[in-house]
């Protein structure tokens, strides 16, 4: 059986990664989403084990110590990590796994799994990104400012990615990513 692909999606906070990924998963039934572990508190409407597996810092630490994470990183004061067993099981079953992780995580994945497909999602403009960040309305002013400065730093990593996709329109951006995935599948066989 074909081993599932590993598709890494990064991009600045507020660019719309979640919406694009949701649409992508609807478009292709072979795709699975890697639910990460985090010490961040749930946002309103976020569901445990669907958006994230929410962990205490002690729980996260214990899992990291026993190697449960394929990669993990600290982002704006919270820990985030990809569960190794979830990724392995999915890929072994021939399903393509989508990871939504930050630039530090993507760099770890690139080293561990050079065949991973790294995609960076950008906004059509700086103004549009700020507008989307404010519109989300789930973060405090301090949190928003911190995420903006991280986003500027993250943009300097864009050259480490295989593809850059502009989220000017969710349907179009998800379609572009799906096309990249289909091409990678075709060159696997
Ligand atoms: P948020 O708090 O907005 O959900 O996520 C903050 C950042 O953490 C985003 O850039 C997101 O892609 C990243 N992130 C989410 N899960 C993981 C993970 O498992 N590993 C890493 N390295 N970053 C993650």
Task: Give an overview of the whole structure.
The structure is a single chain. This protein is an alpha/beta fold and about 190 residues long. It has a single domain (about 5-185), classed as P-loop containing nucleotide triphosphate hydrolases (Rossmann fold). The chain has seven helices and nine strands; from the N terminus they run E-H-E-E-E-H-E-E-H-E-H-E-H-H-E-H. It has helices spanning about 15-25, 55-65, 85-90, 105-110, 125-135, 140-155, 170-189, and strands at about 5-10, 30-35, 35-40, 50-55, 70-75, 80-85, 95-100, 115-120, 165. A five-stranded parallel beta sheet has the order 2-7-1-8-9, with helices on both faces. Helix 1 (about 15-25) crosses helix 7. The chain starts with 5 loop residues before the first strand and ends with a helix. Guanosine-5'-monophosphate binds near residues 40, 80, 100 and 104.
What are the defining features of this structure?
alpha/beta, five-stranded parallel sheet, 9 strands, binds guanosine-5'-monophosphate, Rossmann fold, 7 helices, 189 residues, four-stranded mixed sheet
Count of distinct structural domains? 1
* Annotated CATH homologous superfamily: P-loop containing nucleotide triphosphate hydrolases
Q: What is the number of beta strands? A: 9
Global shape? globular
Distance between the termini: 10 Å
What ions, cofactors and ligands are bound? Answer: guanosine-5'-monophosphate
Strand order of the largest sheet: 2-7-1-8-9
Give the helices and strands as they follow along the chain: EHEEEHEEHEHEHHEH
What oligomeric state is this? single chain
Task: Give the CATH class.
Answer: Alpha Beta
Structural Rg: 16 Å
Structural category is alpha/beta
What do we call the CATH topology?
Answer: Rossmann fold
């Amino acid at each position: 059986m074909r081993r599932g692909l590993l598709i890494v999606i990064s991009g600045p906070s507020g660019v719309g990664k979640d919406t694009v990924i949701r649409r992508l998963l609807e478009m292709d039934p072979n795709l699975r989403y890697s639910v990460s572990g985090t010490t961040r508190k749930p946002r309103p409407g976020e569901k445990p084990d669907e958006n994230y597996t929410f962990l205490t810092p002690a729980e996260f630490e214990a899992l990291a110590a026993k190697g449960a994470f394929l990669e993990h990183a600290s982002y704006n004061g919270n820990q985030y990590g990809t569960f190794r067993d979830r990724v392995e099981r999915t890929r072994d079953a021939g399903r393509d796994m989508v990871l939504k992780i930050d630039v530090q995580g993507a760099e770890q994945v690139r080293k561990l799994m050079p065949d991973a497909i790294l995609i960076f999602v950008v906004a059509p403009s700086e103004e549009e990104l700020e507008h989307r960040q404010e519109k989300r309305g789930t973060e405090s002013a301090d949190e928003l400012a911190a995420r903006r400065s991280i986003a500027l730093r993250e943009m300097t990593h864009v050259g480490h990615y295989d593809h850059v996709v502009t989220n000017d329109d969710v349907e179009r951006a998800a379609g572009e990513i799906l096309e990249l995935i289909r091409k990678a599948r075709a060159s696997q066989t």
